[in-house]
Amino acid sequence: MIDQKQQLQQKTFVLGYPGFFSHRCIGDLVSQFEKSGLNITEMICMEVSEVFAGEHIVNIGWDPEAYAEWSPEAERTAEDEWNPEASNGNLPVASRKWVDYLASDPVVAMVVEGCDSVDKVLELTSKKQLPFWVGNNKRPTVYASKSGEQAERDISLWFRPVSLREAVDAQGKKVVFMLPEGLVYGPQKEVEDVLQQDESYALQEPLKDNFFMEYMSVFLIKPLAFRKRCVGEILDAIEFNCFGLRGLKLVKKAEHPSKAWLTDSDSDLEGEIDGDEYGVAVVAYNIKPCLKILPGDIKKIHLKNEVFEIGSNYLHKSDPGEDVLEAAVEFFEYGFTAWAYPNHALLFGCMFQASFVGLVSLP
User: Which cofactor does it need (predicted)?
Assistant: First the structure.
C-alpha cells in the first residue's frame, strides 16, 4: 500500500516577477520554501518576450486584453475591485500592460516539490509581506499555480526544452543571438543601428563587450547547502554583495561535471558524482570584496549588520575576468548569450539556454 505522505508529494510552479531583481529577494524566497520543508527541483532566471508573456497569461486563464492600457482611473478601479480570496493573491499589475511588465526584466521560474506543495506555496504567497508582497503590501511578487493540474500546465510551458536551432529558426529575423565564441545570428546591423540612436547608450565593439565580463564572477552553491537547507541564505548573501545577477540556474552534479563541485575533503572528481545532488549556478557582477569564501565548512551569514564567513564546502567562486566565460559554460550551455529586437533600443543578455524558452512561441 502506498504511504499517505508519499501520495501527497506534489510539484507546483512558482514565478518570481521582474520586481524580484530590483528588490533582491530571490534568496529570501528560496529560504521561505526551505523553512517550510519544500524542495526546489528546477530553477531558472530568464528574459521572456511579450509573445511568450501573453502565452503565460492565456495558460493561467487570465484575459490577455485585461489591463491592456494604463490610466490612473483604471489602476484605482483594478485595486478597488480586486478580491484577494477569489484570485489567490495573483493581482495583475495594472500600472502598465501586463505582458510588458513580464517582459521588462528577468523573471525566475521554479518547480517546488514536497508534501502538499500546492497548498503550502499558496498559503505562503498569500502572506502580505516580503518577499511575497511589495508596495505597502498591495502587489504580489510571485505567481503560484492554484492546483496540481495547473502546475503541470505551467511547468510544461516554462520548462519545455528549446534548442538554439529552434530559437534561431523561430526568431532569426526578429532577434539577434550572440554566442560566446563570437557567432552571431539574426539582424545584427538593424539592432546596432537602433542602439546607436540611444544617446544614453555607448555601444561597444564587439557585441559581447557590452556585458562587462571583466566584472563578472560565476558562483556554485554546493550540495552541502541543500543538505543544510541554507541555499536561500547563501543566495541572499550573493545578492546583497553584488550589483546584480546575470544568470541563475539549478544544476545537477551528474550533468555538469566540474572541479567547482569539489569540497576540501574531495581528493578527486572521479567517483564523487552523485546524480541526485543539486547545486545553484549564479552569474553576478561587481562583487564586493567583503564577500570572502574561507576554507572548510563555516557558513554564518546574518546580512544587514554583515558577518558572512561562507565556507568553501558551501560555495565556489570563479575569479572575475576573461576566464569567467569558461567557468560559465560549465553550467550554462550557451554561455553569455545576447539577444535584442531591432525595434527596441535595449540590449538584453542571459547566460543560459533556458532563456530561449521565453523567446520561442508555442507552435
Answer: Mg(2+)
